[in-house]
Amino acid sequence: MSDTLFTKIINREIPAEIIHEDDLSLAFKDINPQAPVHFLVIPKKPIATINDIEEADRELIGHLYVVAARLAEKMGFAEEGYRAVMNCNPYGGQTVYHLHLHVLAGKPLGWPPYQDKLKTA
């Protein structure tokens, strides 16, 4: 896999607003946010798409979700709720071919009828 934008962020070749880093992952704010809170959690290991995940990556992928949950708690939106999603390939909306977990929060993200129920609850 060739270097991607995310590889360059991991290597500090280009700047990013990093909010978490450990041996396995990096989390940083999305430069084109789709919600009031929008950050990405990426593995440091280069994996191009969901289709490229191997059995040996099981714990690494789980770790990305653990990081997302801990950051949601730390940033104060875990109880309100959030969306954590990975896109895969062009029809799935993937634009950078380095696996990444989008975490979006800060407003209702559900289907519109669900949002109406939220307002009356």
Automatic annotation (TrEMBL):
PROSITE patterns in the record: HIT_1 (PS00892), HIT_2 (PS51084)
Location of the HIT domain: 5-114
Organism domain of life: Bacteria
InterPro entries: Histidine_triad_CS (IPR019808), Histidine_triad_HIT (IPR001310), HIT-like (IPR011146), HIT-like_sf (IPR036265)
Motif (Histidine triad motif): 98-102
Protein name as it appears in the record: Histidine triad nucleotide-binding protein
